[in-house]
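Slide 14.
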Amino acid sequence: MTRKGSLRECLMVAWPLVLAMAGNAIMMFADRLFLARYSATSIQAALPAGLTAFMAIAFLQNVVAYSGTFVAQYFGAGSRAACARAMGQGLWLALLCVPLLLATVPLGNLLFELAGHAPDVVKEERSYYLTLVVGNLSMPFAAAIAGFFSGQGFTRLVMVANLIGNATNVLLDPLFIWGWGPIPELGIVGAGVATAFSQFLILGILIVAVLRERHLSTSRRRRVAFAWKGPLILRIARFGLPSGGHVLLDVGTFTVFVFITGRMDALSFAASNIAFSVNQLVFAPLMGIGMAGAIVTGQRMGDQDTKGAARAGRNCIVLGWIYILLCTIVIGGFCDPILRAFYPHNAPFSYDAYLPLGRSLIVIFLVWAWFDTLNIVLGGALKGAGDTRFVMYWVAGTAVFLWMPALLLLYWLDFGIVSLWLTMLGYVMIAGGGLLWRFARGQWKNIRLIAS
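Slide 15: predicted structure.
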């Protein structure tokens, strides 16, 4: 029998999520690679518009996704019927997200106008952003259903659904970007259309799977699970809002960073965007390990095994650092070929100037990845225990009151892109250290997310 919270248990929950998130990363990597080959303007517009769209959905999706933490704790407590009820309330929250998400379209367009990017970049940012928002409408619903399965440890289904959707996106990208036959050339909008199609496909797969779930096999059980339950919705929102706030602040400050780099020269902006695209390949699978930390910690807290919950958090850090070691070896060894693949064919700067700058930025993010492991994994474990407020407050304190002032000061003093990236390294180190201190102190062990 597998020891609760052991490295084996964490690995069994984590590896499908790692592959699912890796699929997401490869999909976005392919989007950026295709767009880099399409035009320099498109690759410059892709990251700001993509980040803004992600920021728009991140808060709402993570509030909904917190229903999956309730599923994990109910599963640990042995109540499968309560797992279905938690998912049902997550779907109600997802429905409330639709008008809120659509309302971000004019706000996003205003942000692009204020960013000071070139007019042709702003035009593509606005088009890409609108397409992504439409595709994102499916994501809160998918998050609620995915949380139902992953919270119970059934992460392979989530992996399969995501990999099918991601593969579809990659196949459709060249078709819609360059056009073929009756399909017109859509450029950056085509990349957004492919992404939207894949997201709705993932939701469709999850809907079919949940309707076949034995706990929802009869109309009476479905009515019970999907009926509005105000107290449970409010409790999910009480803990989910700080969880979503943490992600919003994290992504929001990162988006500010990207928009500031967009005001720099073309070489610095392009090299920074391309390095971030490579970084996404590292970051996204690590999110899968963080999700596993939240799931296993939540399950152990559900059965009131605080020692097992602490063990799960520690073992997920070990998994994260093993993964980062592999990434450091691979990306460090193939740095030049990766940068060469992303070099735009019509770039307004030379390859000789681009290559050393790209190398420097990749080295910086490979260093901060070791500290970001603490942020992602321990942030997930603390959220799985219900300690969402501390995670949000700590990120707000370090990002808004430390990182942003340092970033703006160095930008005002015209220090250059490498110095700006080093401010992010400092932020990640401080944020990760604070979460490690909180986890070690153990106050989260006293939080009761669900009734006994």
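Speaker note: The mean pLDDT is 89.
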